[in-house]
Amino acid sequence: MAAAAGAFSLREVLSAFQAAVTERREVLLGPYLRGWRGLVRFLNSLGAIFSFISKDAVAKIQIMESYCGGERQEEYRTLQSMVAYELASGLVDIQRRSEHPDSGCRTVLRLHRALRWLQLFLEGLRTAQEDSKTSTICTDSYNASLAAYHPWVIRKAATVAFCALPSRNAFLEIMNVGTPEEAVIMLGDALPHISSVYGITEELYAQHKLLNLP
Ligand code: 1PW
Hints:
mainly alpha; Glycolipid transfer protein, GLTP; nucleus; golgi apparatus; cytoplasm; lipid transport
């Protein structure tokens, strides 16, 4: 069943991530940020309690959108061109945040780590038993990924927010992809594309030793 016109569907988010990877395995920032914008809408639809989570994502998306629409937008067409440009121009703080606190490289790194969480969470949701607790799946995937980069107070607030998540079936319905069964099939088709974006980014950042940017 198609989502009603104008209604949010997680399918569009996932297809943006699909569109983000080119044949040459480059990651296009336009579709990548479009995917993130959709994710934020999705997070907001989960209730106000998730707004502290989406707020930081929005701030980071905005930083990246201003680069992508700015004077040097050609350099920010792909993740690969951004990394090459920022490194060659000395625009990345490597040791500690100082002159370039909001480089594209460090900003995308935060989104990239969060994408891993999303990937694990949706995979957990897809493969879980019907009666599994969404909050447990979400907490487990968070602890296995993004939590390592967060101070105690954020970890605590995040874990409290997760308790407000709806049941697995309700969650699959919020995705607006059809029945829970159809949503599970969509996830199975779409998750490899998120994995691919994640994997290419991870490789690129590892190659340039950017995985621990302050
Ligand atoms: C239901 C599953 C959805 C997954 C969506 C992922 C959204 C991720 C946003 C997490 C934000 C938590 C609060 C903010 C923490 C920031 O300090 C942190 N940002 C992130 C994205 O981890 C680090 O950014 P900073 O402080 O180094 O600029």
